[in-house]
Amino acid sequence: MADSQSLSKRSEELDTELKTILENSKVINGNTKKYVLSPTVLSDGDLLRRERIGQKNEDKPHKVILMVGETGTGKTTLINSMINYIMGVKWEDKIWLEAIEISEHQTESQTKAVTVYEVYAPNSPFALTVIDTPGFGDTEGFNKDQRVAEALQQLFRSEDGIHEIHAVCLVLNASDVRLHERKRYILDEILSLFGKDIEKHILLLFTHQEKPTLPKRITNFIKESLSKYTKNGEYICFKFDNCQSECSEEEDRESYKVSWDNGIDNFRKFFNHLNEIKPKSLHLTEGVLTARKQLDASVSNLRDRIELADLKEKELEQTKTALDKCENYSKEQNNFQFEVDEPYKDLVPINASWWHLSKEATHCTTCKENCHYPGCWWVSNLSNCSVMEEGKCKICKGKCDYTDHVKDKKKCKICKGKCDYTDHVKDKNKCTICTGKCYYTDHVKDNNMYVIKTRKVKKTKDDLKKKYDEETGEKKDLMTKLEKHIKQIEAEKIELVKECYECLEKIMETALKSTSMSSFIHLDFIIEKVKETGNQERAQKLEELKIRVIEDNKGLAERFYTYTKQMII
Questions:
Q1: At a CB cut-off of 8 Å and minimum separation 6, what does 474 contact?
Q2: Where is the secretion signal located (predicted)?
């Protein structure tokens, strides 16, 4: 605890509320005294954490920004600097506030979870919510980047979460001289998280930038990487040098005064611009994140069902071969025996590999299928699982879901007053993945999942007659029934492939970056299956999409496209 009498001279004049914040902070003494803030923890999960700094004040206008960037860009220092600015810390105070403690010799991203900071500064005209994300592209790689998308989906989807945003801030290191393809890949992966309507809300924040103008290598990189997401090639950017937090010796302190003043000036410009931005609904972005999860779940389920269908076809072909060998179907031959490889589903404990996000799977007890693995880690009530149908508005006919209805205002943000929140069906009922599209109550999330196996089974002709008479209720030739069953399985496979294609198509239509490589780890698989269904038009579209993915990502295509594809195989 800090002793209030030990605060600097001007701190005696500070707002009482700010004093309270400082007194409850960890103090690191030095020429510039560092206060590591102790925020109120609102929720604390492995992937999503929420904290509050200061006393909540709902009367103030609220600004929400999302900070994303590569590991090592200085995002953490920038957020701390931002909080010092809105808290009104001045140069002469000789204090520095850290909402996120920065350890010495830190080389990797310290942020492990998506963290939401609600900042209520006593003298600020607005309240600020900063969504801080773990750095992209660090040593944990693809797995960690996927967890960011998972956490953001929870945040944007939950009723008490965040449903609109003022700006997505891409943090870039202006001093970085290694602007190679990997950075373009990381930038694309970040942009692929958002809906197309977020385009005008993207701001570029450059760190480690001491000069008024950006280096030419930076401007060229931005033109190459962001030209598709900026109007007429123009973008809005703000520059910071990240030196404000330096706790220098007294004799060197004055040399940092210019840096401090520049930081104040740049933050003033940043927040003046932020005040002019109207908030944007995250409905489309949440839909993009959900569609990606549904695509993953659909393809995983499709692989299982196609494997089962192929094994069933094999069993039926073995049966037909056995019947062909029987020279006649006289009574004395009715009970001849033959052996087939019969497929079946076995519920077994999950043997989780290192890259999976969860050791739990959501599976249907009726269809005996895996509907979502890895499952939504935050979900306890399966009606909220990403693969369940969202409750739709009875008036809007599916144009919006219940989260678009603001209960306090009694009206829907999408319907523009045509209906109120009571017209939106809140319950999420049916699964979009399993064969029977069963209700969520038929599903279980635990540490088990279905695995397809085969076993040797001896059968007789009477067994087959009994089976197909019971299934069809018809008295037809046995071989005809077998062939009909095979065609039925083929039709089911075609429908499954169609569902995957439609999910992929939704991402293409709504995502800000629709050709990022990790978005299409399933692309080769879907192309292969679409070709098998004979739909040449769709196959051609997917081939063209694959070409665009490779062209957009140039030198990275072979390495990263292969890598991300392996994650699902």
A1: 468, 481
A2: none
